[in-house]
């Protein structure tokens, strides 16, 4: 027989032994193994619940089944009173057969007392820690420190065998009577865990945080010194320049140049020069400084000493470190540098100065302006000095004479690293080239700029000019284009109102109300989805036919709408009307919107203007010509000189039947609600005569949250309790003041708010009950959301993968039933 057959046989033998109830024990299977009950006939748990718990424990192995059943009973409040349980268990073990190693009565009694004390600890836990998904966490924490009865390697196979039903026949018959020793072993897991969690508070803390005790609080920080003692840090020079529109382009260009320019690093240290004598012996150095005695080793030994840093080297004396050499920036201001090259050169000077100031140690930097005949000092350390430098212009053809004058002065001063910044074409001008050759001994670096955005950096080495680096920048983009970082329109949540409205974006997909899709209000692109301006000028977006809508904008201006897109992720909407011309960009993947107002550009129009979207641009025909707005670059491309594309075909001719199926999966919205209540048995809400029920779905073997229509419901009016009527006075809660919310109030303080977007918000008078939001749709399963972030119901409204989701059965028990109970 194969090893596989041996494993199968082992699992089939273990399954009845594990799941069969002992004869005359405190629990037994009934109804062909459908549920477990106490000896007195009360239910302990259903088979499905037991299977879910055991599956959660399979990864760490299965504990004794009796312990699992007792813990399930404590979680479900089906555990009898402690006094009665103690008497019953004492009678049990007194009837059990005693073996040679049977425990004493005192030992069994002490163990059972610990078991009952721990089960009382569990019973006192908050409901949200011993029901639903947290219950599995409780079971894992209780049994993870105990040796399992069934190891993890066999647990899953054993559960598969049990759930297959092949062992159900064996469950009809009890196994032999359990001994006292076996009973002691079965209860040991619950008795021992009392030492870890002696109180409900300690167990709850561990379940919530994973800690057995909270850490001690950190010491309070020292009080901040008075404001006068710590003056505000001044803004960096480039930050000051960036904040002024006149110099913002200069700052952007200087930042780009700062990232590209690299001043050569002189890595040679003072000890690397053949100066002075020997000061020490070290285990690191160059091979030419190895001690001669190291060469006496054989090749393998020498290699081993080198690899292990055991070889010895000579270390030379280091002369005193010299101070950092200052740097001078020579900025050409002559005729060829006027305009864009001048700004380019000044940005390079700022980048060079910033780089020098950030060196370690910082290098002092000074700047001079080279005119046609003389040079003058520049201030590149203040905002005012940079602005003044931009105003310096000299009519001289080149700065050769001023360069020679600076070179003569430099020869009488201490050595410095001088950088000349000039135009690239001047290197080929004979007079300037001759002056540069004569002054090169006083220069260390040369940086040339060009109107095209190209720069080149050279270093003078032994009288020769050596190229170091070069790059090209888009000067048009950096200097003259406004910062195009999209600033999304702020979607502010209301300060008051239901918790659902405080979430941005709202946590559920929305149903659609009052939309007649047409070319005037709806846009569809296969790669993007459907965007529409619906009732009361709300902008909704459906990414696919499998979900509801996202509200991209709560309110948009009323007018004539023109649509376009980038065919990837953004839809553009132009709104035109009287004194109105605005363009919106809706980035659908991020659910963000951006707007630009162009009414002033076309003279505050008195009516809607003809508009066409073509090649990523809106063409707007107005009195003085055609305004062209490029949506991709988000700027005006032309104000009046372009030709209006009179015969441009529209980009949107969809099948509106397909659009309707995309935005609605077959539901209707219950918009008119005047009365709310609940049925007499307190199990369901009644919303305008419709019953909110948990309907079974045989295809999915699950339940769905559904509003049962009036003609299907068998409830009579006299079966409805807590009936309240709507307050007819509406009030706005969102930025769209046309959306009027209405309130229902029960006498005990609970309230409901009807949301005209197809939602109902429930707030209980009991503060411990989270707020609930229901989607009011008929004809399809609906969904719900709780203010603790939990959702349930149709994925059409919750989304495919919500962060926290419960089954509708659990959501109904944990949220809806608690809300209804407060009403009763």
Automatic annotation (TrEMBL):
<feature type="domain" description="MoxR-vWA-beta-propeller ternary system">
    <location>
        <begin position="742"/>
        <end position="823"/>
    </location>
</feature>
<dbReference type="Pfam" id="PF19915">
    <property type="entry name" value="bpX0"/>
</dbReference>
<dbReference type="InterPro" id="IPR045553">
    <property type="entry name" value="bpX1"/>
</dbReference>
<feature type="domain" description="MoxR-vWA-beta-propeller ternary system">
    <location>
        <begin position="41"/>
        <end position="204"/>
    </location>
</feature>
<dbReference type="Pfam" id="PF19917">
    <property type="entry name" value="bpX1"/>
</dbReference>
<dbReference type="InterPro" id="IPR045554">
    <property type="entry name" value="bpX0"/>
</dbReference>
<protein>
    <submittedName>
        <fullName>Uncharacterized protein</fullName>
    </submittedName>
</protein>
């Amino acid at each position: 027989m194969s090893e596989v057959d041996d494993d199968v046989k082992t699992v089939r033998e273990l399954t009845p032994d594990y799941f069969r109830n002992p004869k005359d024990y405190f629990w037994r299977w009934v109804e062909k193994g459908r549920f477990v009950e106490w000896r007195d006939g009360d239910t302990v748990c259903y088979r499905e619940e037991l299977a879910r718990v055991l599956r959660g424990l399979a990864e760490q192995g299965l504990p004794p089944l009796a312990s699992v059943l007792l813990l399930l009973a404590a979680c479900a409040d089906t555990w009898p009173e402690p006094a009665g349980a103690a008497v019953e268990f004492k009678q049990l073990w007194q009837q059990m057969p005693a073996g040679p190693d049977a425990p004493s009565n005192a030992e069994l009694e002490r163990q059972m007392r610990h078991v009952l004390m721990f089960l009382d600890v569990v019973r006192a836990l908050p409901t949200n820690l011993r029901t639903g998904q947290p219950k599995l966490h409780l079971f894992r924490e209780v049994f993870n420190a105990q040796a399992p009865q069934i190891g993890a390697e066999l647990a899953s196979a054993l559960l598969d065998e049990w759930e297959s039903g092949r062992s159900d026949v064996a469950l009809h018959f009890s196994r032999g009577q359990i001994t006292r020793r076996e009973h002691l072993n079965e209860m040991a897991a619950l008795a021992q865990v009392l030492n870890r969690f002696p109180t409900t508070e300690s167990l709850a803390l561990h379940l919530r945080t994973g800690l057995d005790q909270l850490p001690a609080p950190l010491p309070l920080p020292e009080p901040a010194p008075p404001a006068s003692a710590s003056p505000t840090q001044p803004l960096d020079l480039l930050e000051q320049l960036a904040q002024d529109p006149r110099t913002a382009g200069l700052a952007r260009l200087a930042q780009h140049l700062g990232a590209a320019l690299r001043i050569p690093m002189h890595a040679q240290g003072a000890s690397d020069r053949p100066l002075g004598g020997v000061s020490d012996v070290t285990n690191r150095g160059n091979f030419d400084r190895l001690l001669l005695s190291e060469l006496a080793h054989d090749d393998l030994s020498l290699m081993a000493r080198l690899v292990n840093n055991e070889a010895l080297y000579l270390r030379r004396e280091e002369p005193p470190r010299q101070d950092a050499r200052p740097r001078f920036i020579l900025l050409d201001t002559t005729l060829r540098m006027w305009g864009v090259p001048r700004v380019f050169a000044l940005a390079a000077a700022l980048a060079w100065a910033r780089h020098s100031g950030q060196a370690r140690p910082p290098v002092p930097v000074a700047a001079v302006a080279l005119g046609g005949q003389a040079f003058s000092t520049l201030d590149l350390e203040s905002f005012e000095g940079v602005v003044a430098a931009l105003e310096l212009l000299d009519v001289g053809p080149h700065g050769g004479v001023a360069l020679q004058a600076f070179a003569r002065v430099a020869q009488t001063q201490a050595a410095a690293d001088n950088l000349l910044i000039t135009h690239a074409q001047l290197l080929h001008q004979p007079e300037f080239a001759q002056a540069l050759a004569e002054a090169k001994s006083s220069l260390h670096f040369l940086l040339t700029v060009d109107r095209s955005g190209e720069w080149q950096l050279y270093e003078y080495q032994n009288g020769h000019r050596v190229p170091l680096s070069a790059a090209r920048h888009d000067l048009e983009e950096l200097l003259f284009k406004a910062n195009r970082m999209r600033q999304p329109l702020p979607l502010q949540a209301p300060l008051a109102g239901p918790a659902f409205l405080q979430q941005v974006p709202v946590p559920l997909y929305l149903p659609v109300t009052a939309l007649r899709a047409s070319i005037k209000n709806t846009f569809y692109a296969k790669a993007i989805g459907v965007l529409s301006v619906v009732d009361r000028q709300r902008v909704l977006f459906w990414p696919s036919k499998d979900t509801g809508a996202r509200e991209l904008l709560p309110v948009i201006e009323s007018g004539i709408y023109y649509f376009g897109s980038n065919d990837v992720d953004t839809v553009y909407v132009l709104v035109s009307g009287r004194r109105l011309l605005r363009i919106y960009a809706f980035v659908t993947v991020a659910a963000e919107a951006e707007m630009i107002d162009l009414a002033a550009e076309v003279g505050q129009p008195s009516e809607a203007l003809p508009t066409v979207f073509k090649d990523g641009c809106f063409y707007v025909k107005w009195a003085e010509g055609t305004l062209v707005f490029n949506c991709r670059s988000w700027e005006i491309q032309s104000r009046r000189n372009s030709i209006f594309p009179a015969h441009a075909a529209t980009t949107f001719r969809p099948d509106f039947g397909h659009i309707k199926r995309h935005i609605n999966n077959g539901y209707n919205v219950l918009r008119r609600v005047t009365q709310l209540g609940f049925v007499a048995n307190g199990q369901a809400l009644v919303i305008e005569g419709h019953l909110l029920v948990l309907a079974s779905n045989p295809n999915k073997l699950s339940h769905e949250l559904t509003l049962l229509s009036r003609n299907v419901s068998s409830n009579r009016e006299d079966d409805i309790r807590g009936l309240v009527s709507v307050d007819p006075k509406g009030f706005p809660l969102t930025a769209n003041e046309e959306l009027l919310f209405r309130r229902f109030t029960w006498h005990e303080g609970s309230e409901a708010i009807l949301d005209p977007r197809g939602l109902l918000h429930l707030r209980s008078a009991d503060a411990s009950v989270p707020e609930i939001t229901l989607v009011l749709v008929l004809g399809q399963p609906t969904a719900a959301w709780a203010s603790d972030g939990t959702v349930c119901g149709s994925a059409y409204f919750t989304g495919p993968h919500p962060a926290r989701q419960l089954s509708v059965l659990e959501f109904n028990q944990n949220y809806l039933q608690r809300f209804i109970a407060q009403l009763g």
